[in-house]
Design goal:
single chain, alpha+beta, Beta-galactosidase, Chain A, domain 5, Glycosyltransferase, Maltose phosphorylase, domain 3, 42 strands, globular
Length: 811
C-alpha cells in the first residue's frame, strides 16, 4: 500500500497520513546549516557538524518514536493539536506533508482552523525559517493560542547526552523582546550562540523545560499549553528550551502569518573578555531583521527552488518510464547532494555523534555528486586527501568541523586508499581540471608533509601494490568495503595496526574485491598520469593492473564465480568449498565492471551465478548461504541474524555494481531488472513492507532468510545513492564522461524505446536523442553531432561550444 504520492511537477513527495510505517524525513540545508525534518515535525538542527555544533536535541530510541522536534501547539478552546500531528496526536480533519527539495510544507485542518507550516534553510544564511499561517475557515470569529517549541542541545551532542552532572547546571538563556538567545557555552570563551525568534510581539515565553512541560509530563501534554498561559520562565541551569506564546484573533476567512527563525551565530570575542555572558547580538539581529517580513521569506524560498532547478539541469532524461525519469531527474540526484553533505554522519539511523565523514564514504559520494557542483567536489577531494597517512593508508573517518582524522576509528581498511583515486578520476573526467593534481596537500594534516595530490594518488596505488598476501592478492587489513568481514581475527598481531606488517610478519588475509578495485582504479590512475605526460608511471601502473587480472583469474576464480577472499589461515571465503557463505556479491560485481574475465567467459558465468544463487524479488543478497552460527575467523559478518545487514541481507549499495557489470557484457534486460528491484519509485506500492521513504534509497533490505524479507533499513545516507546514479546515468542510459569527451553507449532493456537526454558537461550542454530502431540492448550503430556523422561513440569535446545536438542510433 501507499502512504502518499509523487508530485513530479513540483518535485515533491506528498504524504497523506502522519502514520507512516517509519518517520519519513527530509533534509533542509544546502551548505553549512542543516535540519533533519520528519513528516510529523520531528528532527534536529546543527551547524556544519552534527556532533560538535548541535543546536536542538533529539533522542534516538525514544518511545513513542520520533518524539522531539520543532513543534507548534494550537490551543482552540479546549482542543490542543499540532499541524504535524505529533506530539499531541489529536486526530486531524485533514493532513498533508510535502517534502520538497530542501523544504517541507505541512498543511492540516482541525475544526475551523487550517494551519500551514513551511520550513526551509535559506541558501546562504545560518538559520532555518518556518512560516506558520493560521486561517479561520469557519463563519465565526476565532480566538486561538499558538505556542512554539524547540529544545536546545548544549552544542556538543555527545557531551549533552552523557555529562548530566555538569550540564544540568550550565543552561543559560537571555530573552529580548520576541527573541530567545541560547548562550550556554558562551561564558566559556566560546564564540557562538543560538537563537529562536518570531516576527511579532509575543504574549509570553518560556525557556525552562520543566516550567513549560510541568512535572512528570511529556511533549504530548505540556502544562503551559493546557492552561493556555506561558510562565515567562528564565532557565538557570537545567534544560533550556525556546517557546513563544502568540494569541491570535481571526475573523471568518482571515489568515495570519508568522515567521519563526532558528539561527546560529558566531562572533569575534572581545580580547578583554570583560563581560563573558553578554553576547554580541549583531549577527542574530541582522538575520532577524532580514526575514522579519513575509515577502523576504517568500523571496528566499523562491531562490531555493531556483537553485535546485538550475542544479538539476546538469542531467535530465525523458523516456517512456515515468518512474525512471523521476528518480534520475529529481530524487536520486537530490539524495546524492544530501549524502555529499552528510556522508554517514546524521540521519535517523546515524546519531551524528559517532561517524563523522567517512574516507571511503565521501569518496564514493562524490561519484554521484561531481556533475552538480564540481567546485565543491574539488574542495572535498583535497579535504579527504589531507587525512591520508604518508604510507598511503588513511583514517577511516574524519570530523567535518575540524577535518581531522578520527583517531578512535583509526585506519586499516585497506580499500580506502583506492577510493581517493576513484573520486579524483571522476572529478577530472567531469571537469578536465588537471590542475588539482598539482595542489599541495598535507599528509595527516601536517603541512610540513605536504605533497602534490598526484603523489597522494601514487601512494594510494603503491600501498595496495606493496601490501600483498600469500596468493599475491591485496591484503584486506581490518576489512575492505565490507566492514564486517574481519578475516584477521586470529592473526599473530590482533588489534594492531595492519598496514605496518608485511605478508611474512603480520595479518595475511587477502581480498579479491580489493583486487578488482586495483584493476579498475589502477587503470584510471594510469590515465591520470598520461594526462600530465607522466608516461613511465602510467606504463608501470597499467602493467601492474594487467598482472592483477591474471592473479585474480588464477587465485580468485572458483570455477563458477569469483572467490571473495582468503582468511588469515589462507582458507577461501566465498567459495563452493565453504559450508556457509559460498558466494558473495562484491567480487562478482566489481571484478566484472573492472573488465576481469569478460573475454574468457568468467564474467558471464559469475553473473549467471549471482542470478541463480543471490537474486530475490527485492534485490540481490550480499551472500549465500547465510551464516547460521558465529564464525570467529570471519568476524562480525556472521554476528548478524541470517538475512540482515552483511549476513545475507540485500545491500542496496552493491546491487549497482552487478547492474553495471551486466552492462559491461551487454545484458540490458538484466541490468535494468537489478536496477528496478531496489529503486524506491518502483517499490512505492509495497511501502507497508519496505517501510522506509519511497523517494530515497536505503542501505539495506532484509534478505530471503530474514523473517521480514523486503523490509528496508538505514535510509538516506548510503553509498547506494551515488552508485545507483552512476549506474543508471552512465551505464544504463550510457552517458559516461571521459577525458576526451562524453561517451554515449546505452545498455537498456528490450522494449525500453527511444529517449532524449540533456547533459551538461564542462561548459557545454548536450541535447542527446537516442533512437533504437532494432530494439537492441546495447550497441551504437551511428552517432551524429550537430548533424554530422562522427565515428565511434565519444563526442569530441569542443571547448568553444556551449551547446550541441547529438543523435545516437543504436544497433
Amino acid at each position: 500500500m501507499k502512504f502518499g504520492f509523487f508530485d513530479d511537477n513540483n518535485r515533491e513527495y506528498v504524504i497523506t497520513t502522519p502514520k507512516t510505517p517509519l518517520p519519513w524525513i527530509n533534509y533542509l540545508g544546502c551548505n553549512d546549516f542543516f535540519t533533519l525534518y520528519s513528516n510529523t515535525c520531528g528532527g534536529y538542527t546543527f551547524y556544519k557538524d552534527a556532533k560538535l555544533l548541535r543546536l536542538t536535541r533529539y533522542r534516538y530510541n525514544n518511545v513513542p518514536t520520533d518524539n522531539g522536534g520543532k513543534y507548534f501547539y494550537i490551543k482552540d478552546g479546549d482542543t490542543v493539536w499540532n499541524p504535524g500531528w505529533q506530539p499531541v496526536k489529536t486526530e486531524l480533519d485533514n493532513y498533508e506533508c510535502r517534502h520538497g527539495m530542501g523544504y517541507t510544507t505541512i498543511t492540516s485542518n482541525k475544526g475551523d482552523i487550517k494551519a500551514t507550516t513551511l520550513a526551509f534553510v535559506p541558501l546562504n544564511d545560518t538559520c532555518e525559517l518556518t512560516k506558520v499561517t493560521l486561517t479561520n475557515t469557519g463563519s465565526a470569529d476565532k480566538e486561538v493560542k499558538l505556542f512554539s517549541f524547540v529544545e536546545w542541545c548544549l552544542f556538543n551532542a555527545d557531551d549533552d547526552s552523557r555529562n548530566f552532572q555538569r550540564n544540568l547546571s550550565t543552561g543559560e538563556v537571555e530573552v529580548v523582546g520576541s527573541t530567545i538567545y541560547h548562550k550556554t557555552e558562551y561564558r566559556e570563551r566560546r564564540n557562538h550562540y543560538a537563537y529562536f525568534s518570531v516576527n511579532t510581539e509575543v504574549d509570553g515565553f518560556d525557556t525552562n523545560r520543566d516550567a513549560f512541560l510541568g512535572a512528570y509530563r511529556g511533549f504530548d501534554d505540556p502544562v503551559v499549553v493546557e492552561e493556555g498561559k506561558a510562565t515567562n520562565s528564565i532557565t538557570s541551569g537545567w534544560s533550556p528550551i525556546g517557546s513563544h506564546q502568540i494569541n491570535v484573533s481571526l475573523k471568518a476567512g482571515e489568515s495570519k502569518t508568522f515567521v519563526f527563525i532558528l539561527g546560529y551565530a558566531e562572533v569575534d570575542r572581545d580580547k578583554k573578555w570583560e563581560a563573558p555572558n553578554v553576547i554580541n547580538k549583531e549577527p542574530a539581529l541582522a538575520l532577524i531583521n532580514k526575514y522579519k517580513d513575509e515577502a523576504a521569506v517568500d523571496k528566499a524560498f523562491a531562490e531555493l527552488k531556483d537553485y535546485w532547478t538550475n542544479l538539476f539541469k546538469a542531467y535530465q532524461v525523458k523516456s517512456s518510464d515515468e518512474k525512471l525519469d523521476r528518480m534520475v531527474n529529481i530524487w536520486n540526484q537530490y539524495q546524492c547532494m544530501i549524502t555529499f553533505n552528510m556522508s554517514r554522519s546524521a540521519s535517523y539511523y546515524e546519531s551524528g555523534i559517532g561517524r563523522g565523514m567517512g574516507f571511503r564514504d565521501s569518496c564514493q559520494d562524490l561519484l554521484g555528486f561531481v556533475h552538480l557542483i564540481p567546485e565543491r567536489a574539488r574542495e572535498r577531494i583535497l579535504d579527504i586527501a589531507a587525512t591520508q597517512f604518508p604510507d598511503g593508508s588513511a583514517y577511516h573517518q574524519y570530523q567535518p568541523l575540524t577535518k581531522k582524522g578520527n583517531a578512535d576509528i583509526g585506519s586499516g581498511f585497506n580499500d580506502d586508499p583506492l577510493w581517493l583515486v576513484a573520486c579524483t578520476s571522476a572529478y577530472i573526467r567531469e571537469t578536465g581540471d588537471v590542475s588539482i593534481l598539482d595542489e599541495m596537500v598535507p599528509f595527516n594534516n601536517d603541512e610540513s608533509l605536504a605533497r602534490p595530490l598526484l603523489e597522494h594518488l601514487k601512494r594510494s596505488f603503491d600501498f595496495i601494490t606493496n601490501a600483498r598476501g600469500p596468493h599475491n592478492l591485496p591484503l584486506i587489513g581490518r576489512a575492505d568495503w565490507n566492514d564486517c568481514l574481519n578475516l584477521n581475527c586470529f592473526s599473530e598481531h590482533p588489534g594492531e595496526s595492519f598496514q605496518t606488517f608485511g605478508p611474512s610478519e603480520g595479518p595475511v588475509a587477502e581480498s579479491v574485491f580489493i583486487a578488482g578495485m586495483y584493476v579498475k582504479y589502477g587503470r584510471e590512475y594510469a590515465d591520470l598520469n598520461e594526462l600530465v605526460v607522466n608516461n613511465d608511471e602510467a606504463s608501470r601502473a597499467r602493467k601492474l593492473a594487467d598482472e592483477m587480472v591474471d592473479i585474480v583469474l588464477d587465485a580468485g576464480w572458483d570455477g563458477e564465480w569469483f572467490v571473495r577472499a582468503y582468511d588469515a589461515n589462507s582458507n577461501k571465503v566465498g567459495s563452493k568449498e565453504c559450508e556457509e557463505g559460498q558466494i558473495y556479491i562484491e567480487p562478482q560485481g566489481f571484478c566484472v565492471l573492472a573488465g576481469i574475465g569478460v573475454e574468457g567467459g568468467q564474467a558471464k558465468q559469475a553473473l549467471d551465478s549471482v542470478k541463480e544463487k543471490l537474486d530475490t524479488k527485492y534485490g540481490v543478497m550480499i551472500l549465500q548461504p547465510a551464516y547460521t552460527k558465529y564464525h570467529v575467523e570471519l568476524g562480525e559478518v556472521s554476528s548478524y541474524p541470517p538475512g540482515y545487514k552483511e549476513n545475507a541481507g540485500i545491500f542496496c549499495h552493491n546491487n549497482p555494481w552487478v547492474s553495471i557489470a551486466e552492462t559491461v557484457i551487454g545484458r540490458g534486460d538484466r541490468a535494468f531488472e537489478i536496477y528496478r528491484k531496489t529503486c524506491p519509485a518502483y517499490v512505492e506500492e509495497i511501502s507497508e513492507i519496505h517501510r522506509t521513504e519511497p523517494y530515497v534509497y536505503s542501505q539495506m533490505v532484509a534478505g530471503a532468510d530474514a523473517p521480514r524479507h523486503g523490509e528496508a533499513k538505514n535510509s538516506w545516507l548510503t553509498g547506494t545513492a551515488a552508485w545507483t546514479f552512476v549506474n543508471v546515468s552512465q551505464h544504463i542510459l550510457g552517458v559516461y564522461p571521459t577525458h576526451k569527451g562524453l561517451q554515449v553507449n546505452p545498455c537498456v532493456p528490450k522494449g525500453f524505446g527511444d529517449f532524449t537526454l540533456t547533459r551538461k558537461y564542462r561548459n557545454t550542454t548536450y541535447n542527446i536523442e537516442v533512437v533504437n530502431p532494432d530494439n537492441v540492448e546495447k550497441g551504437v550503430k551511428e552517432m551524429y553531432v550537430n548533424g554530422n556523422l562522427v565515428s565511434g561513440n565519444i563526442i569530441p569535446y569542443d571547448a568553444s561550444q556551449t551547446e550541441a545536438s547529438v543523435k545516437i542510433v543504436m544497433g
